[in-house]
Amino acid sequence: MDKKLSLLVDLYELTMAQGYFIYRKDALATFDLFVRQLPANRSYLVAAGLRDILSYIKNLKFNPEDTGYLRSREIFSEDFLNYLAGFKFGGDIWAMPEGTVFFADEPVVRVTAPLIQAQIIESFLLNTVNLQSMIASKASRVVWAAKGRKVFDFSLRRTHGAEAAVKVSRSSYMCGCAGTSTVLAGKLYGIPVVGTMAHSFVMSFKQELDSFLAYATTFPKRTILLVDTYNTRKGIENAVTIGLYLKEKKYRLQGIRLDSGDIVYWSKIARKMLDRAGLGYVEIVASGNLDEFKIRDLLKRGACLDSFGVGTNMGTSIDAPSLDVIYKISEITDEEGNFLPTMKLSSRKVTYPGRKQVFRIQDRKGSFVKDILALEKEKIKGKPLLVKVIDKGRVVYKDPPLESIRGFVRAGLNNFPEQLKNINSRYKYPVVISPGLAKLRKDVSGQLKKRQ
């Protein structure tokens, strides 16, 4: 982890931490990170970002440069800055493994730690889960809409910054995309790197056919030609010419790309022209402001497409560019060290008290039928979704390979009802509150109202 990330924190996390340092230095607390409600057009979310959270916790420290900057703000006491100089996270963290499908109100991450420590890590946890789960969920929908056809991440130039770009590539690949155009993501995560050509390459030659020939000669084993720079029909004819040229040289034209115009019409024309020339193996790739809705409509209208390059709309999750993700305290120790459940009572923002677990219930065929949000120690017959990833500050979770997470996402979604995955679905997967949690919520709510 870059040492600069230690100050990737909202100022109020540190001012609260100094208050705790003075008045509640020995207190322990449990916080839940969850999404309050699903975005519109979303019937599920996919957990992502755990890998970065583990790295952050493992390496989190405040070096002299950090404490020196904080000292220059003239906000913090010297005793508190000395505390930060020796900071090391020593709590426990439970989390849903990356790729887990989850729903509103379900803790994705649960932190039990000294109150100061649990507070300081809030901002990074929220930032990380928000971006990566948001993109993973969007990518999952795009991949589902493609109905088995390949989807590639083309979003680098439109993502919100350099770091976001590689996280988008990883999150989308995790949820089924076949590759990315972002070379750095390929290096960092082992994701297949893909690319074709831009219109500028075609326009830099006097003749379109010359540009195609130059590219095919340079990359005979991986040529995909962009055919809509000037005249799409002529572009397809030129691609056929290059395809036959490569075939004669014992190579294969990999594909053509349609980026504009009536893609349904031109894909059908292209398929006929390629097949008629004996180039039935050449794939047709579509791109150009695609998302799950446009892909669905293209396929419904009979487009002859083999894969999709999806950029802006997936890389920014354009229809739901953020999640209603929050981090709330659910229990805190008293002066004797006993954990007392607590909750928020604000209108429309009431939370659930106590240390909780999410149990996923399956039928005899293995299909998921409901989740139960319960107290951790309740005896529920179901699979617990939160697993321990950090024990007393030490990482105890073995991060699986990215390819394994891809399989986990695919298998998980296959076990949910089909209507959950429909992109316009209004189906609401059941998340049930256990009797024990319902009773505790009622009791704690009454106690807090009396106390206030």
Topology:
Layout: H1 11-23, E1 28-35, E2 45-46, H2 50-59, H3 64-72, H4 78-85, E3 92-95, E4 101-102, E5 109-114, H5 115-120, H6 122-145, E6 150-153, H7 162-174, E7 179-180, H8 183-189, H9 199-203, H10 208-218, E8 224-226, H11 232-248, E9 255-258, H12 263-276, E10 283-286, H13 292-300, E11 307-310, H14 312-315, E12 325-333, E13 339-341, E14 356-362, E15 368-375, E16 383-384, E17 387-391, E18 394-395, H15 402-414, H16 418-421, E19 431-433, H17 435-451
Parallel strand pairs: 6-7, 6-11, 8-9, 9-10, 10-11, 15-19
Antiparallel strand pairs: 1-5, 1-12, 2-4, 3-5, 3-17, 12-13, 14-15, 14-16, 17-18
Helix pairs in contact: 2-6, 3-4, 6-7, 6-13, 7-8, 10-11, 11-12
Task: Describe the protein.
The chain is built from 17 helices and 19 strands. It has 2 domains: 3-135 and 321-451, Alpha-Beta Barrel (nicotinate phosphoribosyltransferase), CATH 3.20.140; 139-315, TIM Barrel (Alpha-Beta Barrel). Strand 17 and strand 18 (394-395) form a beta hairpin. The two termini are 43 Å apart. The strands form 4 sheets. It has a 7-stranded antiparallel beta sheet with strand order 13-12-1-5-3-17-18. 41% of the residues lie in helices and 18% in strands. It is elongated. With 452 residues, it is of the alpha/beta class.
In brief, what are we looking at here?
With 452 residues, the chain is α/β, with parallel strands linked by helices.
